[in-house]
Specification:
globular; alpha/beta; 38% helix; CBS domain protein; CBS_dom_sf; four-stranded mixed sheet; CBS-domain; CBS_dom; 8 strands
Length: 167
């Protein structure tokens, strides 16, 4: 828990994230995850900013069932865009904070915000604009620590996220 947080982060400078387009079926997304050996896909339109994320839990959980019932659709008609988590709802922290944080700080963050993933933002070296640098995954940290991360409590504001990392 006292190890540097960087040891638990998937750094996208070293590992390219797996992506999917929003108009693909959730069945295709799940197959892509299995083929790539991941549980999360970045939802993108080519040449445009990140739209959101979709996880295997999203696909295999209650989201598709609820969506299907609301619109009277067949399961195979549900698209990634229908159940993904939009980028505006994603948790994120700055790389500068991550460089000072421990794995325990990240566990506290994930538990407090009630999420299984948290993005890491850094400045693009060419433009200076914010860019996604990496991601923390509760599953990866659980394997490293041999401990379950409880993600039930939800933070109400971004200030709460910052507070967890800065304390």
């Amino acid at each position: 828990m006292d190890s540097p947080a960087l040891l638990a982060m998937t750094d996208f400078r070293q590992q390219i994230p797996v992506t999917i387009e929003p108009d693909m079926s959730i069945e295709w997304a799940l197959q892509r995850m299995k083929t790539a050996g991941v549980r999360l896909l970045f939802v993108v339109n080519p040449g445009k900013p990140l739209l959101g994320l979709i996880t295997s839990t999203d696909i295999q959980g209650e989201k598709p069932v609820q969506f299907r019932q609301q619109l009277n659709l067949r399961h195979e008609e549900i698209m990634v865009r229908d159940i993904m988590t939009p980028h505006g709802e994603l948790e994120a922290t700055d790389m500068a904070d991550v460089e000072r944080a421990t794995v325990g700080d990240i566990v506290s963050l994930l538990e407090k915000v009630g999420r299984r993933h948290a993005l890491v933002l850094d400045q693009d070296p060419h433009t200076g604009a914010p860019a996604i640098r990496g991601i923390f995954s509760a599953s990866r940290i659980e394997k490293q620590l041999d401990r379950i991360i409880e993600t039930i409590n939800i933070a109400q504001t971004f200030a709460e996220v910052e507070s967890v990392l800065n304390n």
